[in-house]
Amino acid sequence: MESYSIIREEPMSIFKRALGAALLASTMLAAPALADTKLEVAIIGEPQSLDPMLSTQDVVSIVTQHFIETLYTFDSKWNIQPLLAEALPEIADGGRTYRIKLRSGITFHDGSTMDSADVVDSLKRWTELATRGKGVAANIESISAPDASTVEIKLKEPYAPLLSLLAFSNSAAAIYPQEVLGEELKAIVGTGPYKLVEHVADQYILTRKFDGYLSRSEPSDGNAGARQQLVDEIRFVPVPDANTRVEGLVSGQFDYADGLPAESYSRVAESDKAEPVLLKDFGWPVWAVNHKAGLLTDRNIRKALLAALPMDDMMFAAFGDDNFFSADGAMYPEGWPWRSEEGLDQYNQNDPAKAAEYLKAANYDGTPLRILTSRQYEFHFKMAEVAKVALEAAGFKVEMNVVDWATLGQQRNDPALWDVYITHSPFLPEPALTDLYAPTSRLGWAEAEKDAVLTAFTAETDQAKRQELFGQLQKWLLDDVGFIKIGNFNALQGQRKGLAGVEPSPWPAFWNASVK
After folding, report:
1. Closest CA to 290 of 280, 273, 302, 304
2. Considering Cα of 424, then 61, then 230, then 234, what sign does the dihedral take?
């Protein structure tokens, strides 16, 4: 198993080289002191990567947000707020130019000082390698540095979701020092309140507070404002088995545990050491459809898949208690401004005879439908089991490929290996943050008329018009089966009694956490 230190760099300037060498030497000569306070956080498995630019997995965001930061972030009401940027940008030229002032005195974990050159090269890498960055890359005319504390982004056309993309923590527009950049990072070096100290794959990821961290001064609000280092160490422990996460929490082994099964709510609530954290209308399970290769490149077979799926049964199997889910095909729940009823006649058909008709029209030859899933999110696997029975009743031959979550994260990048992979997403404040709509996503859902609606949606700045366009996009999603939303669900996490400062979130953060 690989273990490494973050202090690995190839500095560009003599000044940065000297600082890096001094820091490395001091680390090698002195053993680290034992931390006074620490948190043990159980996560659902080994993260696919510790470079959040390269992954959309929630488990990657949960860990990496502690040591890697972005220009902007979200507050508790999903408003965009500055993080490494000094303030919100100056926007000119009808929404085509974003001028961003950077905070001064920001230090990377390698001892070097952040400047606009670091930010420009990081953002360029984001447009080349990150799923969300690639989605906007064609609309970016230039990313430049007018001076050492300013970055300027020029767009070909206005793009309303840009700041949301720059603020999001997965497929993140992460800021790194120039010296570590490349297709693969030379080291995991960020600006966050905690620095990566050691990573032993499948055992733990150890972070320790960064003494050079410069917090914002505003009150803490969601991920915005002050980030206090109230504990010395945070150790993230991959625990693939959900029941083991539950037992570790209620026994006091873990201070926090992510991704708990719904049926464990009472077990946690009745514990004398732990308490449940319930996130209502957390998100939606996704059946991601392969449009690049294989069986589902045929629209009739996609339509057969959608017609056959019993959404109610799948959600009940996944969560077991209707307090934890609802069968709802709209892409946003009631109360959200993006809520639309367009196309919902296509949702939850549960009609094997209709599915069989689509298969007949496609001249389906019995090629297996390959479903890629994992048991680390147990509800993914339970949905797949129920769906398999319904799909076979409709005439599909089904092949289940059950792997660990990190392997799924790798295999889904190869369209030759799957027809559907199962994942989930929180409800996000900006629909364009869901990259699956874009033809550049790993799904490859490219359809000229749909893509024209998507382009109009992202260019429009009037909210009422954007809501109307999103309704059209939702209709395309269901008519063409771009990907499949199964329903809405509440999520369960858990924490030690006496733990304070962790706001309920799909991506719980521990920089303001303290334990009584």
Report:
1. 302
2. positive
Give the integer Cα–Cα distance in Å for 89 and 268.
44
Burial of 228 (0-12, 13-18, 19+ CB in 10 A): middle
Please name every residue paired with 371 in a beta bridge, in sequence order, or none if there are none. Answer: 400, 420
- Per the CB < 8 A criterion, the answer to whether 374 and 408 are in contact is yes
User: Both tokens of residue 448?
Assistant: 């000229």
Question: Residues in the chain, how many?
Answer: 516
pLDDT in tens, 332-390: 999 899 999 999 999 999 999 999 999 999 999 999 999 999 998 999 999 999 999 99
CA–CA gap between residue 258 and residue 246 (Å, rounded): 9
DSSP letters of 141-200?
EEEEEEETTEEEEEESS--TTHHHHHH-TTTT-----GGG-SSS-SS----SSEEEEEEE
Q: What is the pLDDT of residues 240-258, one digit of tens each?
A: 999 999 999 999 999 999 9
Distances (CA, A) of 52 to 59, 86, 184, 224, 478: 10, 22, 12, 18, 30
H helices, E strands: number in the chain: 14, 20
Q: Is the pLDDT of residue 295 over 80?
A: yes
Strands annotated E in 291-397: 325-326, 369-373
Reported as a pLDDT band with limits 50, 70 and 90, residue 461 is confident
